[in-house]
Amino acid sequence: MKTFAELELTEPVRRALVDENYETPTPIQAQTIPPALLGRDVLGCAQTGTGKTAAFALPILNRLGKHNRKAKPNLPFVLVLAPTRELAIQIEESFSTYGKHLRLRQALVYGGVGQGNQVRALKRGAHILVATPGRLLDLMNQGHIQLYQLEVFVLYEADRMLDMGFLPDLKRIISSLPDKRQSLFFSATMPPKITELSQSLLSDPVSVNVTPKSTSVDRIEQRVLFVERNGKQALLKEILCSPEVNRTLVFTKTKRGANLLADKLVRSGIRATAIHGNKSQSARQRALEAFRRKQVQVLVATDVAARGIDIDGITHVVNYDIPVEPESYVHRIGRTGRAGAEGIALSFCSGSERRELRAIEQLIGMKVPLADNQPEPRREASSNPSSGGRKTAQQGRTPRKHGGSQGSSQRPSARRAGEASGDESKPKPKKRSRRRSQNRTRSVKQST
């Protein structure tokens, strides 16, 4: 399939694609839409920003549009499960866009808000239900959602669901599904647990993997900057003030860190806001809208929000903290370079984050290049008996005031140097040890 015109889509769906100027499908769309239109189960793996949402939304809308049935209260025909509220909202918006010429009802169910409006939407009847696992189970337990008439089940970004600990919820939901159904399974990565889950969920699926062996996005220019934690904030401000930096997404490791960084940027005169799981849904939506409309230049986010940010025109992604999970790096930088555009991903790496950086480089199959004018990080200083251990340790402390990594990397070598200088006379270390012990005892007595 080379164009959407080749697909046997209903006229309303085809007209919606024309309205959106959709002509050429992405690889994941070209390989999954035809079998999905035939009712086959699909297992699709593709990077973020490759059009996975349309890959399942178009076949579903085409299927529902052919029958023109009335929606039944609390009995959806389609269930789409997403890991985060932001993703669920964006999926529902995509269904609205592609199905705007069809007379179909949708319901959106997620936590963090009152359930009253959601329950009323379900009672009116919805052909398509888009939900997050936690709130879905709550409403199922209350009797507001029944799945025995479900025809199509979509599991979206399944790898992220497992990362967030949703596997027990997924198993409970899947056990409530009817045996006779079409299942569409889409994920950005395919770790062993996801493969195992797909084997129990899908029946003779068409498997499509358009993710290259190198999991990083080729259009994204990746660079690493070695800087200690107390120097990261000043470096970020310097980068954000560059004329070529427009809309920037900054990732932190914690929610508190996101709030603190956003506040400090605002106090520095940089328009910024934060988004993370502790914020209310209305606050998160306001932050996204402000970022989308360029009312703020910088959006500071945590990994939970990473896949819920689908905004074109993000020129830079900054990993203020290196992610603990290497896969999160791929999802983070995938927020730029979308829709065929190019992007830049910068990673701030402190001495304590070198191990995480190496894990990322192993995953993506390449060494992340150094940023321009960025020196190679210093390796541990070699042992030098003639220099003396005390002097080396003192040298290692000085750069620490300026945020350099030299101090932390030289201290182990300083100890080794001290050990080497004492090898000629073994009683000396014991004598020094006794003196230190006596001094400590004397200081304790004085303090008491």
Poorly predicted ranges: 380-448
Which range does the strand content fall in? 5-15%
Quickly count the helices: 17
CATH architecture of the largest domain: 3-Layer(aba) Sandwich
The description of the largest β-sheet is: 7 strands, parallel
Mean pLDDT equals 81
Q: Radius of gyration over alpha carbons?
A: 27 Å
Helix content: 40-55%
Category from helices, strands and their pairing: alpha/beta
**Overall domain count:** 3
Provide tags for this entry.
single chain, 448 residues, alpha/beta, Rossmann fold, 3 domains, 7-stranded parallel sheet, 6-stranded parallel sheet
Q: Layout of SSEs?
A:
Layout lengths: L10 H9 L7 H11 L4 E4 L6 H16 L10 E4 L3 H14 L7 E4 L6 H9 L3 E4 L1 H9 L10 E5 L1 H6 L3 H9 L6 E6 L4 H10 L4 E4 L10 E7 L2 H12 L7 E4 L3 H13 L4 E4 L5 H12 L5 E4 L14 E4 L6 H8 L9 E7 L4 H11 L24 H9 L8 H16 L5 H21 L1
Task: Please tell me about this protein's structure.
This protein has 448 residues and is of the alpha/beta class. It folds into three domains: 206 residues, P-loop containing nucleotide triphosphate hydrolases (Rossmann fold, 3-Layer(aba) Sandwich), CATH 3.40.50.300; 145 residues, Rossmann fold (3-Layer(aba) Sandwich), CATH 3.40.50.300; 33 residues. Helix content is 44%, strand content 14%. It contains 17 helices and 13 strands. The strands form two sheets. It has a seven-stranded parallel sheet with strand order 3-4-2-5-6-1-7. A six-stranded parallel sheet has the order 8-13-12-9-11-10, sandwiched between helices. Helix 5 links the parallel strand 3 and strand 4. The C terminus is likely disordered.
